[in-house]
From TrEMBL:
Keywords: ATP-binding, Cell membrane, Membrane, Nucleotide-binding, Transport. GO terms for molecular function: ATP binding. It comes from the Bacteria. Residues 4-241 form the ABC transporter domain. Belongs to the ABC transporter superfamily. InterPro entries: AAA+_ATPase, ABC_transporter-like_ATP-bd, ABC_transpr_FbpC, ABC_transpr_MalK/UgpC-like, Mo/tungstate-bd_C_term_dom, NA-bd_OB-fold, OB_MalK-like, P-loop_NTPase. This is ABC transporter ATP-binding protein. Pfam families: ABC_tran, OB_MalK. Gene3D superfamilies: 2.40.50.100, Nucleic acid-binding proteins, P-loop containing nucleotide triphosphate hydrolases.
Amino acid sequence: MAKITLDNLAHSYFPNPKSEDDYALKELNHDWQDGAAYALLGASGCGKSTLLNIISGLLRPSQGRILFNDRDVTDAPTAERNIAQVFQFPVVYDTMTVRDNLAFPLRNRGRDEAYVAERVQEISRMIGMDHMLDRKARGLTADAKQKISLGRGMVRKDVNALLFDEPLTVIDPHMKWELRTQLKKLHNDFGHTMIYVTHDQTEALTFADKVVVMYDGRVVQIGTPEELFETPEHTFVGYFIGSPGMNVIPARIDGNKALIADAEITLKRGYAGLEGKVEIGVRPEFARLSQSEGLPVKVRRVEDVGRHKIIRAEFFGHDINIIAGEDDHVSADMNRVTFDAEYVNVYANDWRVAGEAA
């Protein structure tokens, strides 16, 4: 297990980058704690796989250092970093049995056969393949091969870190929840430092202690699921986390008032001197449709998704979403909306502004 330090780290695929736009991974300075489970979350192309490959040693950064337990491993090859990595598409030895595939990392390090047999049995049960140990990997389905790949990554107890690069992409949907649960159990049992790359917010939020949200090559927030939901530090976090995502509405801010057209929303905190693009952000869960209270809104449609209703509406020319409970009454004469002031965030140029006590 290892604490992983990113020290002034950045990477460009251009030989002579001339501006920040030339960097696929913009400057990072972070400590990731020994034994914690992190998820790297973001859209395709945001830099999360680039960062994972730098951590694993498959890619040398253009700038800065990476340290394991304060030891500089920037130039150390992958083999010296003592990590296990599971890729998006399964990498297995087709001519070997499932048993021999799982045993390979242990035998390669000279572990005795009794220990190998014990770990293989334990991991095969964990991934649901204990009844297939003597089958050759050739001819197995893609999701079965990925389970072997996952098992091979998990079979060693002595690794500094376990790295997962979108490992459940080829897994059948009904198996994904089970495997995420098993990965979480593995983390709880053995305390490995784990880093899990995904574009799926459900995978990230159910797996990780801390979610690292990336946007345009930059880490925009590291936080617990609750922190990402209630106080998104960047508008992208608000948009990307949640279904539907946070409502982001252009506004003028005057002290503890948000002004939208001629309407006012009272804020919990006061703000001064905001420049550039100024917006408020409020999640659909913290908006309420009403007949008599709040500001005017035009309801476009109501979508019943079983657990709740999603109300698609227009608010001073801007599309917003409102979530109502499954049993909540929604009628045509409900044409006003209120926002819970406790959860209205203010953003300047996409970054959250803390404000001062009003």
